[in-house]
Structure formats: C-alpha cells, structure tokens
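User: Round two. Same drill as before: sequence, then structure, for each protein.

Assistant: Same drill it is. First protein:
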Amino acid sequence: MGIFVCDYAGQNNGVRSFLIAVAVAIIVIAVIHLFIEVAQLLMLKFNYLTDWTNYVDITLFIFSIMFVSSFSNCSCPSTWQWQLGSVAVFLAWINLLLYLRMLSGGNHYINRYRKYHQKQCALIILSNCMSNMFLCSFSILFLFQDCKL
C-alpha cells in the first residue's frame, strides 16, 4: 500500500491552477460524452445494450471522472483512484483502436497490428516448445546420473 503525499500548497499557483483546469476539462468532456451515451440509449433502446463498445465507453467516462474528481479539491488520488486511472487509460487505448477500425484507412493498421501479434505469439509458442524439448533431454540425462548402468 502506498501513501500519496501531495502538498499543493508548497507548489506555485501556476501548477495548481493547471491541475485544476485539466481536471475540470476532463470532467466536462466526460459528462458531455455520458450525455451522448444516454441519448443513444434512449434512441436505440435494446440495440444499444447489444454492442459491447458502448460498455467500454461508459466505463471509460465514469472511471475518468472518478479519477480526477479528487484533484478538484486539491488533494491527491488514493490508491483505488490510481487503479481506476490506469484502467481508464487502458480503456482509452481500446477505444482509440475501435475508432481507428471505423475509419477507412484505420482498418489497415488494425489488421497489420493483429497479424504482427499473431506472428509474435506463434514465435513465442514455437520457441517455448523448442526450449522445453531441449531442457527435457538434459533433465533426463541429469535425472539418471546417479544410476549405474
């Protein structure tokens, strides 16, 4: 468990004002997007709930608001807020990939990224199998080293 010690009173007012302005901007943007999501829910009804990307959006906006809400009163986030912040950054990355997929040229980059990771996973599996076979042969040799033939 980490203890976060923040002394914004010791910092100059420029840094403190900047942190508060960024926190307010994030809260305003997230609330606007939450209203957009609620409007989509009211218009699309059940179809809105069938798309999993909407869950990513809502979770991202809620976690972002929860993370920066403590900056508005000039205190540091607690440990659970840092964890929510890291999840929010991960969801923002996923959200970016989903929006790139919708663009006409973005699908090319997503496919290239997927093929690259498929090749990397296959290479890792192959190298693990080869190293395990190599290690098994030497472990058999060392296992029966005490036995006299």
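Second protein:
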Amino acid sequence: MRILGIDPGLRTIGLGLIEVSPKNACSAVEWLTIETPEKTPLAARLFELFEDLTAYLVEAKPDLVVVEQLFFSTNRRTALDVAHARGAILLAVSKAHIPLLEPNPLELKVGITGDGHADKRQMQDMMMRILQLQEIPKPDDAADALGLAVFGALTRKYQEVISHELRVTSNEKLIKKSTSVPRAS
C-alpha cells in the first residue's frame, strides 16, 4: 500500500510518499515539495498547485492520502492562504478518487508519539525510527508530510486490528447463538 502525506501551504507544499508492506513495515519512497511563486496572483498559484499535485497523484498512485487539518493561526493572512491551498489539495485528491484522512495536529501527535504535546523534534525522531531513516528529511515541509503518511499507516493498521476484533467478536456471538439453538431430532 502506498500512502501520501501532504503538508498544506501556499508557498511550499510538502509531499511524503511511503510504502507499507503486507507485514505493516513502513519505508519512505520519496519526499519533495511543490512550490508556487510568491509574486504570482493567488488564483494562478492555486491552479499551479492543483495541476502539479494532480500530475503527481497520477504518477505516484497512492492508495491513501493524509492531509493535516488547519489549526487556528494568529496570522490571519497565512491561515487564509493555507486554507485556499488546502482547498486546491482536497479538490485534486477528490478528483483522483483517492481515500482521504484529515487528522488535526493533536490526533497526529498522539498517533505517532502517543503524546498530544509532542514537539517537532519528538515527532521527527519517531518518524525516523518508524521509517528507519538515518537523518531527518529536508526540507521541513517534506518531513512533516512523511509524518502525515506514517500517521496514515498507523491509523490503517489500528483500523485493521479493530475491524478484525469486531469480526472475531461477531463470529463468536454467531457461534454462541448457533450452538444455543436446540437441534431438531
């Protein structure tokens, strides 16, 4: 399974692609950024982002995309720009018919480190361990995107475990019900 993490932004969009083996081992395939020129009008930047991401989705063929939800920013202009970019990202993913996860920062931190108050360094250290990397990927936007992809892998694994437990529990109930029914002689 291939999982793409996307760290939304208007100037720089981080992309991190990982591969998850059948035994749930994660490995980094690549990490990169899409950049849009600052002096370009907003509509043109969003169009470029949409086009570049659409082309990358076709090339990378992810099975799942993980895009971080926005959190309130004290800089309203930056928050609005990121919200616009996030809209273009969600549109590209939706157009490609790829399943999407949208964790908020707290869910992301808890999912990767087990600590909702983890700092950036703790997140990077855990991501490096999971992906067996020797150093922190650069730039930061791409490293953050890899962290989102890892969250997708861990969430998927957790959902599979829960799904399996529910099936086992359901089957046990069915077996109990079927064994308690009197047999006709």
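The chain has one domain: 2-180.

User: Perfect.
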